[in-house]
Model the fold of this input.
Amino acid sequence: MVRGAAQRAPSLARLLTGILDESREAPRPGKLRNLSELRAAIMEGAVNRLRPKFMTVMTTFLALLPIMWSMGAGADTMKRIAAPMIGGIFTSFLLELLVYPGVYEIWKWNFVLKRGQNTE
Done:
């Protein structure tokens, strides 16, 4: 579990960097005024992350696919190692592009923008 969090931290940091870059291009840089501007910045940041993340997930999946089909000596051990890796990369893909942006929107809107604070 700790290893999974450590692997996802840089990915999450890249996603949030993209969102923050978009918020700096708002009408008043660094100041998102309403929920629609926040959603637009989050959507743009997530869209910018989609292609690199998809390419990483697919290349890793395609590299592990032959291991899942192997039948030779030691194949049972390799399959037990590859199966959680395949699940982990797809989980990471879904978390980064669906869950993290939603959690960031809830946090940013409820705890920062509504109170008039600015954390950037």
Q: What stands out?
A: The chain has three helices and no strands. The two ends are 30 Å apart (CA to CA).
